[in-house]
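Per your request, structure below.
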């Protein structure tokens, strides 16, 4: 699921999901109702009979486990698109989390999934310097420093696509503080 920009996080089923939750995966048992909400819920079931019952109970989707991770990620993508998150705008930059597109001043910017995930996280935190360690955790799902320059490389790629063709830069970096997205 990481290749599509998702990471799995275990949370409390009774608590409201904190943004930016794309979908909720829940172990489902027959007899349990699923409440509709702003975040799609995908039921993980043990067999086909339970799958049908989960859909009847209100799940956005359901799968029988074990499930192929690529199939699950594709199902999450479909549900997220149907729940249509609102576009994020920072200055002349607009990110559409459903279509996974970035447009700056009317020009579409071609991004690979990890670049989009990084840019989206910076946009959600715009104006604030985001430390490298936070980017590693939130975008790459790493709770440790791998000792590589993966963040710097992706920031450089984003700058080449997002900043260089335009008169002003949107991505600012400060040694010791991290990176931030600023409105132009």
């Amino acid at each position: 699921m990481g290749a599509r920009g998702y990471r799995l996080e275990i949370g409390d089923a009774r608590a409201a999901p904190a943004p930016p939750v794309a979908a909720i995966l829940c172990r489902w048992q027959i007899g349990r109702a699923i409440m509709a909400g702003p975040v799609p819920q995908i039921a993980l079931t043990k067999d086909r009979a339970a799958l049908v019952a989960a859909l009847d109970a209100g799940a956005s989707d359901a799968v029988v486990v074990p499930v192929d991770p690529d199939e699950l990620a594709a199902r999450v993508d479909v549900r997220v698109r149907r729940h249509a998150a609102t576009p994020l705008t920072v200055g002349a930059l607009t990110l559409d989390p459903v279509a996974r597109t970035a447009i700056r001043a009317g020009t579409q910017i071609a991004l690979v999934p990890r670049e989009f995930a990084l840019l989206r996280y910076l946009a959600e935190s715009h104006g604030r310097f985001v430390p490298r360690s936070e980017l590693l955790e939130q975008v790459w799902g790493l709770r440790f420093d791998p000792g590589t320059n993966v963040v710097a490389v992706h920031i450089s790629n984003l700058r080449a696509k997002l900043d260089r063709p335009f008169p002003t830069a949107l991505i600012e970096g400060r040694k010791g503080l991290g990176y931030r997205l600023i409105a132009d």
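The longest strand covers residues 41-45.

Regards,
D.
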